[in-house]
């Protein structure tokens, strides 16, 4: 992950010291999002996507278009939930191209010219026709002056650099072809409908990573925004229009959903490196060269190795005494007991949301796990018979918070066993309910067997 960010940053900024520092800071910002999940592969693929787009537009070599057609196929098969986001990465470049094209057409003056021609043909006073004719004759000169002014502004922009790259036409063609690659996966149209179904459901209102960002609680994101604003406002550094679109779009997405902060970090890092590199180039050209020469010297290499070694030792020291799996959070002992004493394949268990993934890891079928979207009605209906799926996600939360009659829900789902935190409200109630028999208990978790009516009488 860090390698792809550094590759993109160093390649486009030509500044290795700044690229190295920003990459380290970016990786620190990404720590909450780095986990053994499909999104880790997606981060790398998305980072490579922007790299290949930039190389394609800079070099005009069509060989860089090939990976841009392969990557969406990989995403559709590895993490189809984010397949639509692949096309978002192309939008800043396409929108910039279309924006410039529309401006170069001078449609406003051409429309005025057509209106003047229509007015001249009308039965009106000759004096009005003469004025319209004069204005119509001046329009080509006005358009020519306007084009010359645009060219001067583009050659020496105040803040925003605008470039019309003709190879964006090929980029649009790549997007059109890539739009059909989502069908090359086992789920059929799943790559196109998955995201829509997620936002149609109710999981986005309850899962932390889907909630809006509170800036004061996400200091790294707040600092990143302040750094961008400081460079753009207080220095003479210029930014490309496509980069501005990228930052603005990702910034808005990040404020709407916390999970998009990771995307802002990944794609914002190369842009920030370019801005800081341009700032150094304008105000102090030699500083980065001196830093680079020192970094590759013997003393510099030793200093970098020592600093990172000390940081690594500190991190290991903080975690060496920690258990690989926190038994207060995950039912390690309870899972061992279930595998030894229960027929896990034929029982129906109720579990809480947070540790369902661990039970699955141990081979125990679950009521719900952290793939919350799959437990919403949109994903578990019977398509063949046209039956709407149950809202397992909401039911699991309601049972855990005693917002629903748990016994009725267990009857509805055919639950035979319940595993829950020993100090939870649900366990407190089941202790007093004769329909449930506690068959296991440790310091953190309890397991109950749900008795049938005949068993209750006995």
The class by helix and strand makeup works out as: mainly alpha
Q: Largest sheet, order of strands side by side?
A: 3-4-6-5
Helix-residue proportion: 55-70%
Flag low-confidence runs: none
Termini separation: 61 Å
Total of helices: 21
Number of strands: 6
Overall outline: globular
Largest sheet: 4 strands, mixed
Rg over alpha carbons? 30 Å
Proportion of β residues? 5-15%
Average pLDDT for all residues:
85
Tally of distinct domains: 3
Q: Give the SSE string.
A: HHHHHHHHEHHHEHHHHHEHHHEHEEH
What do you see in this structure?
- This protein has 458 residues and is mainly α.
- It has helices at 2-13, 16-29, 38-59, 65-78, 83-88, 91-105, 107-121, 126-155, 168-178, 190-200, 219-234, 241-256, 261-283, 285-295, 298-319, 332-341, 356-361, 392-400, 406-413, 425-431, 453-457; strands at residues 160-161, 239-240, 349-350, 417-421, 436-441, 445-450.
- β5 (436-441) and β6 (445-450) form a beta hairpin.
- The longest helix is centred in the N-terminal third of the chain and has 30 residues, at 126-155.
- It is globular and about 100 Å long.
- The N and C termini lie far apart (61 Å).
- 26% of the residues are buried.
Can you give keywords for this protein?
62% helix; Rossmann fold; mainly alpha; 21 helices; 458 residues; 5% strand; two-stranded parallel sheet
Summed up, what is this model?
This protein is mostly helical and 458 residues long. It has 21 helices and six strands. It is globular.
